[in-house]
């Protein structure tokens, strides 16, 4: 499973990119607003520190303007992926963009039929929002399972990009189900490496090593 960072914080992205564990980045208008920075500058900077796809979202609601915005965003860097909302206009723009060779991430997916339409529109990625479904008392993970089954039934190339991930259990479940990508907040990515027994074990090893009086270097 690939890991994308769900962030527009260039410092956090750079730090995670240095680990070599990051395959791409997703942003959205809320994350851009949170950064307090110019959208186009932020996307350009992220693209310079991450080799993989960097999702930049259009903000128009009609397909004609979406395509104009997409042209600007695609001009920023070769690894920009255009993010469009899962609306009829978004799907229409998706088809035009993918036919033109762009990578397109269709976002705000909340049911399997929407995901089916995105695949038919040639989307490179479909972004089902797990956490927001959980917030409503639904099971976000069930949606990932359904999309996996449908895409496998028809050999769709569209990658399932699990989004709105809130905790490490979401990440594990996505990997078990076979999501292609999980876009994860930086804080959750860091938690993935943590276990109290790892810390305790390391402490013990270090204490015993100190007793030997040796050093490797
Ligand atoms: O990038 C979209 C998505 O991951 C948003 O997550 O936590 O705002 O539901 P959240």
Write up what this structure looks like.
- The protein has 217 residues and is an alpha/beta fold.
- Strands 1-2-3-4-5-6-7-8 form an 8-stranded parallel β-barrel, surrounded by 7 helices.
- Helix content is 52%, strand content 17%.
- It has a single domain (2-212), classed as TIM Barrel (Alpha-Beta Barrel).
- The protein contains 11 helices and 8 strands.
- The chain has helices spanning 10-17, 29-35, 39-49, 63-74, 88-99, 112-120, 130-135, 140-153, 168-177, 186-192, 196-212, and strands spanning 2-6, 24-26, 54-57, 80-85, 104-109, 125-128, 159-162, 181-184.
- α1 (10-17) links the parallel β1 (2-6) and β2.
- It binds SN-glycerol-3-phosphate.
Give a short synopsis of this structure.
The chain is 52% helix and 17% strand. With 217 residues, the protein is an alpha/beta fold.
The end-to-end distance, rounded to whole angstroms, is 36 Å
Tell me the number of structural domains.
Answer: 1
CATH architecture: Alpha-Beta Barrel
Q: So how many helices?
A: 11
The average pLDDT score comes to 98
For the record, what is the CATH homologous superfamily label?
Answer: Aldolase class I
Our Rg estimate from Cα atoms comes to 19 Å
Task: Please give the structural blueprint.
Blueprint: E1 2-6, H1 10-17, E2 24-26, H2 29-35, H3 39-49, E3 54-57, H4 63-74, E4 80-85, H5 88-99, E5 104-109, H6 112-120, E6 125-128, H7 130-135, H8 140-153, E7 159-162, H9 168-177, E8 181-184, H10 186-192, H11 196-212
Parallel strand pairs: 1-2, 1-8, 2-3, 3-4, 4-5, 5-6, 6-7, 7-8
The structure holds SN-glycerol-3-phosphate (G3P).
């Amino acid at each position: 499973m690939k890991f994308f960072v769900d962030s527009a914080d260039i410092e956090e992205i750079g730090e995670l990119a240095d680990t070599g564990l990051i395959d791409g980045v997703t942003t959205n208008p809320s994350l851009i607003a949170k950064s307090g920075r110019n959208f186009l500058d932020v996307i350009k900077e992220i693209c310079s520190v991450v080799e993989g796809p960097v999702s930049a979202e259009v903000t128009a609601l009609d397909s004609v303007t979406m395509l104009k915005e997409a042209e600007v965003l695609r001009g920023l860097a070769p690894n920009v992926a255009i993010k469009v909302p899962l609306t009829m206009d978004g799907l229409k723009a998706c088809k035009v963009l993918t036919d033109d060779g762009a990578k397109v991430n269709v976002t705000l997916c909340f049911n399997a039929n929407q995901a089916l339409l995105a695949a038919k529109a040639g989307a490179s990625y479909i972004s089902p929002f797990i956490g927001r479904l959980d917030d409503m008392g639904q099971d976000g993970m069930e949606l990932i399972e359904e999309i996996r089954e449908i895409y496998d039934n028809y050999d769709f190339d569209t990658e399932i990009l699990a989004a709105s991930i809130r905790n490490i259990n979401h990440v594990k479940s996505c990997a078990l189900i076979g999501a292609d990508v999980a876009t994860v907040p930086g804080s959750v990515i860091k938690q993935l490496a943590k276990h109290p027994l790892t810390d305790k074990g390391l402490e013990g090893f270090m204490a015993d090593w100190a007793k030997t009086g040796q050093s490797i270097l």
